[in-house]
Hints:
Elements: E1 2-3, H1 6-17, E2 22-28, H2 35-46, E3 56-62, H3 72-85, H4 87-101, H5 105-112, H6 116-124, H7 130-137, H8 144-149, H9 159-175, E4 180-186, H10 198-217, E5 224-231, H11 233-237, H12 240-244
Helix pairs in contact: 3-9, 6-7
Amino acid sequence: AVVCNFDGATTGTVNALKAQGAFYYVILGRYGDGKTRILFELNKLLKQPGFVEGKVIASFIKALPPRPPTKYFAQYLLPQIIQGIGLKTFKQLRDDLEKMVIGRKELEEHLNKLNPDFYNAFLAIGGNNERIAWRWFLGETLTQAQRRSIHVISNIRTDEIAERMFLELLKLLWILGYNALILLIDEFEYITIHKGKSIIFLETFRKLYDTINEAISQLKEIASLIAVFASTPAGWDRILPFHEQGITPFLDRVP
């Protein structure tokens, strides 16, 4: 855990970038201590060239909406991550790809390994069907005709599909030369107050951590994931009972 101060959060992020893979850490502070402000400032700094070594993308999100969704990853987490990255950044990524791909056979081979739905939707960014493609990334339900217009077969309708698309995003970032995606997750204490669903939420982050580290251990080309959780001490303590019961080993992933 990291104490609630900006220097600690900055140091934690810089140190996490030195290691490849998934890395989680937590900022603890009571209500009013400034956790949200720290995440906002960190998000702003991470967008400035030269603040950290290498290229990173950051996304600020809230851990949960007022009403928890049935499908956490598909209906909330992935759309919020995409929204936090923003359409402007997606357009920049699309421009970067356009500049890189010309005459580079090896790069084209990497791109051909991406999921066709993800890649085709990404290629539609910046074109006439950009709005439809962006809606697809945000998890909205598109009609068959709309999907056909961006050469996509399926909507992102399940948590399993959402997880796959998130991993495709990390693969794309790696192809474009990015070191990591950094998630700045505010109000993480609310994860633990919804009976029956808290375990599902925690398991989502546990599974992501393991999947990414397993992929990197197998020398697969994928950007790192750094998640910074901001929580009250009391909220963080509520995770302990789940951990002690052996239901989810989420805490093992947080140093």
